[in-house]
């Protein structure tokens, strides 16, 4: 009780701490999801991607209809290779797809798709740096508030604040339309001369991913995971500092 009496009133900077935790958690959540292939095997089943591939791969206008002969395990591997590519861990232009017997069937990505994914890689690199910076700022602010004996928001209030923020973002996307938001973000962040929209019939990449459906699923899971990480980490800090 004596320690609580020595705590200073809630400092305005303490209100920003939950949001910094959320930004840092988006960074951590991205790293975690990347390590598990962004849950592609799970979305593969839930979004019926195998049936999608069987429908559109034979329609490929670039003579890659033989992609329909690839197996599920190969689809998982190819998606992982793309994930590695946008994180700078593999050469996107050299990704090839194979038949179940291991025979090479063709090159997965066209030149335009490689260019697009390289643009994605640049954005991922930038946002990764921003996320790492937010994580450092979060730790520094937490240490500062601890040193000043500042009072923190109760975890339930902080979680409610983050939940309301996530809900507002989700409602905004729903009202504007997920596809419209998806296209607008591409217009804002990608070079205007570089193609980023590909029909299923011309792109094995979009066929493999069932874009944009999978991006919506990944975005929702990423946001929910980040809110959970932020709320858990913030609550841990609150209890660790004896703010019960």
Order of neighbouring strands in the sheet with most strands = 1-4
Q: What portion of the residues fall into strands of 2 or more residues?
A: under 5%
State the low-pLDDT regions, or none. Answer: 1-5
Number of helices: 10
Name its key features.
single chain; 244 residues; mainly alpha; two-stranded parallel sheet; two-stranded antiparallel sheet; 10 helices; 4 strands; elongated; disordered N terminus
Write up what this structure looks like.
The chain is mainly alpha-helical and 244 residues long. 67% of the residues lie in helices and 5% in strands. It is built from 10 helices and 4 strands; from the N terminus they run H-E-H-H-H-H-E-E-H-E-H-H-H-H. It has helices at 2-6, 12-35, 40-46, 49-56, 72-86, 111-147, 155-176, 178-189, 204-209, 213-240; strands at 8-10, 96-98, 104-107, 150-151. Strands 1-4 form a two-stranded parallel ribbon. A hairpin with a 5-residue loop joins strand 2 (96-98) and strand 3 (104-107). The longest helix is centred in the middle third of the chain and has 37 residues, at 111-147. The radius of gyration is 22 Å and the shape is elongated. Mean pLDDT is 88; it is low at 1-5.
């Amino acid at each position: 009780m004596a320690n609580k009496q020595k705590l200073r009133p809630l400092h305005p900077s303490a209100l920003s701490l939950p949001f910094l935790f959320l930004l840092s958690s988006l960074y951590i959540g991205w790293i975690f999801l990347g390590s598990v292939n962004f849950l592609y095997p799970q979305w593969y089943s839930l979004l019926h991607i195998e049936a999608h591939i069987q429908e559109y791969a034979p329609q490929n206008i670039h003579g890659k209809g033989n992609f329909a002969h690839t197996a599920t395990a190969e689809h998982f591997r190819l998606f992982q290779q793309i994930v590695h590519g946008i994180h700078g861990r593999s050469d996107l232009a050299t990704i090839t797809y194979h038949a179940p017997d291991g025979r090479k069937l063709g090159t997965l990505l066209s030149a335009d798709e490689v260019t697009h994914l390289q643009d994605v890689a640049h954005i991922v690199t930038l946002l990764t740096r921003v996320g790492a910076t937010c994580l450092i700022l979060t730790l520094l602010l937490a240490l500062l508030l601890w040193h000043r004996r500042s009072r923190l928001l109760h975890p339930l209030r902080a979680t409610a604040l983050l939940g309301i923020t996530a809900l507002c973002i989700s409602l905004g996307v729903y009202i504007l339309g997920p596809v419209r938001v998806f296209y607008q973000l591409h217009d804002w962040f990608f070079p205007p001369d570089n193609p980023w929209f590909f029909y299923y019939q011309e792109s094995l990449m979009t066929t493999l991913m069932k874009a944009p459906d999978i991006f919506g699923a990944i975005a929702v899971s990423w946001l929910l995971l980040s809110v959970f990480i932020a709320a858990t980490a913030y609550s841990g800090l609150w209890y660790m500092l004896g703010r019960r």
